[in-house]
Amino acid sequence: MNPVLDLSLRKGRFYLTTSNAVYSYGDLYDNFLKALQQIDFRENKFEKLLVLGFGMGSVPYMLERVFHQKFNGVGVEADAKIVEWAQQYVLPELANSIQLTHADVLVFVENCKEKFDLIVMDVFLDDLVPTQFETTNFLEKTKALLCDNGLLLFNRLADTEAALEFTEDFFELAFKSVFPEGNYLDVNGNWILANKRIFK
């Protein structure tokens, strides 16, 4: 679990941070806002959503409030305090149905039998992606949860030279071995990886 968590209200949005990272910021969570802005929602209908690393629900918040999408969502969050905050402050404000589960993401993915149109992978421990989520085995199990023509968006750090190099290696060596048509969007300090050519 995260040793330091801070939840505050800024500009009318819940702002969830650790010592070195922003976890959620409503529709001002730029990484995913910029990625979602690239999607043609007339051509891509995401009726079933899975968020791995739910945080304070920035992605479902944006899908509903900014992009006016209707969906059924499942959120998975390993940190009990974040689950408590999200249930208290975020879920009551959303019209779409979201089932929030307190669980280890790896265990959830290995045991889940559902399929999803959109899977968002946003799991960090402070500013690091835990190594168990960087394996081709995890990517294969996540792929198995995608509907035909489903979309995976995987958030990665690229804010330093070392982080960028590590993310480039992960993308080329692991991600593209599972998703050969994968591409990415550079969102100024992060890369959002996609399983298919969704970004312009």
What radius of gyration results from the CA coordinates? 15 Å
Helix content: 25-40%
The secondary-structure class comes to alpha/beta
Label the overall shape. Answer: globular
Number of strands: 10
DSSP strand content:
25-35%
Question: Please, what is the average pLDDT?
Answer: 87
Low-confidence stretches: none
Main β-sheet, spatial strand arrangement: 6-5-4-7-8-10-9
Largest sheet: 7 strands, mixed
Number of helices: 6
Q: What is the CA-CA span between the terminal residues?
A: 36 Å
Textual characterization of the structure:
Helix content is 30%, strand content 28%. It is an alpha/beta fold. Strands 6-5-4-7-8-10-9 form a seven-stranded mixed sheet. Strands 1-2-3 form a three-stranded antiparallel sheet, with no helix packed on it. Helix 5 packs across helix 6 (161-178). The model has no long low-confidence stretch (mean pLDDT 87).
